[in-house]
Amino acid sequence: xxxxxxxxxxxxxxxxxxxxxxxxxxxxxxxxxxxxxxxxxxxxxxxxxxxxxxxxxxxxxxxxxxxxxxxxxxxxxxxxxxxxxxxxxxxxxxxxxxxxxxxxxxxxxxxxx
Amino acid sequence: xxxxxxxxxxxxxxxxxxxxxxxxxxxxxxxxxxxxxxxxxxxxxxxxxxxxxxxxxxxxxxxxxxxxxxxxxxxxxxxxxxxxxxxxxxxxxxxxxxxxxxxxxxxxxxxxxx
Lengths: 113, 114
Hints:
Chain A is mostly beta strands. Chain A has no helices and 11 strands.
C-alpha cells in the first residue's frame, strides 16, 4: 500500500515555467512533510519542509502548499531553471516514528531552455 | 569534507555471494539509516540505528544485517545475494531520531547482482 501518492511521474517545462508536483497521503498521523531533490548519481537532499499547521511555506523559488483537510500538498518551483532538472520526492513522517520517512514515488522534472 | 560517505560506490557480484557496504558520517549525528532505491527510483527505508541501537527494522529479509560498531558507522551486510537485491543503497544520518531532523544522504552504492 502506497501511503504517499505522488504525481506526475515525469514533467517537462520550459525555462521560466512553474512546475507543480502533487502529493496525497492517507495516514493522518503524519505531521511533517519534507521534499527531497535528487540529481543523477547523487543521494537525495532536503529541499524544503512543512508542518500541517501551516498552509504555505516559501523558500527562495520553492513553495509548498498544504491542504490538511484534503490530505494533499504540492511543490511549486517558480521561474524554473535547467539546473532544477532532477527527481523530486515528497515524503512524510510522524512524531514518535523514529524519523521514518515514507517517500512518494518521485517526479522526474526536466526544464528545457 | 564528505558528510556521509559510502564504500564502495559500485558493487557487481554473483548470486549467492555475501557482500558488505560501509557507511560513515562525520556530522556528529546520533542516528543513521539505510534506504533501498529500486530500478523505478522508489525509496524505502530498511533500518535505522540511534546511538548503536536498532530503532527501525522494516520488513527486510534476514539476509540483510546492519551493524553499527559506533555511532559514526553503520554497515550493511547482505548474505546469499539474489537478483532482486540489485538496487542503489543509500546511507543517511540525522542529528537525532526526531521527525523534524533533516536526514543527510550519502552518494549511494549501486549493487548489481548477476
